[in-house]
Design a protein that fits this description.
Oligomer: single chain
Order of helices and strands: HEEHEEEE
Number of helices: 2
Structural class: alpha+beta
Helix content: 10-25%
Length: 121
């Protein structure tokens, strides 16, 4: 994973990112037209660069230690509509047009199975 010095990102953007010790930034994927929160993934500078330049979400898999493009194996593609950095520089909001399920379990969102407080509790 990249340090700021060898980042493929614009230097101003690379300097603004606040990464974890592993060089990652959480990326929240949200359906662009409904506001539905779909999933959380992790991006390093290269994954963010790929996301910004290809229009498809690329994440870093912490378990497999490799890049993965959402939908390459499942067909459940995320077409990027916009990417925003939060005020602290430590979280990305990626607005997407989700094709099919966002969750690896096959559900639309990763946040509908275990509601702790609110609707359905």
């Amino acid at each position: 994973m990249n340090s700021t010095a060898d980042s493929p990102l614009d230097p101003d953007l690379a300097r603004r990112l606040k990464r974890t010790a592993d060089g990652l930034v959480p990326a929240v994927a949200q359906q662009y037209d409904t506001g539905e929160v779909l999933m959380l993934g992790w991006m390093d500078d290269e994954a963010l660069h790929r996301t910004l330049t290809t229009g498809r979400c690329t994440y870093w898999s912490r378990s497999r230690q490799e890049y993965w493009v959402k939908g390459d194996t499942s067909g459940h593609v995320q077409h990027v509509k916009s990417v925003a950095l939060d005020c602290d520089g430590d979280t990305l909001l990626v607005k997407v047009d989700q094709v099919g399920a966002a969750c690896h379990t096959g559900t639309r969102t990763c946040f509908d199975a275990d509601v702790l407080l609110g609707e359905g509790t």
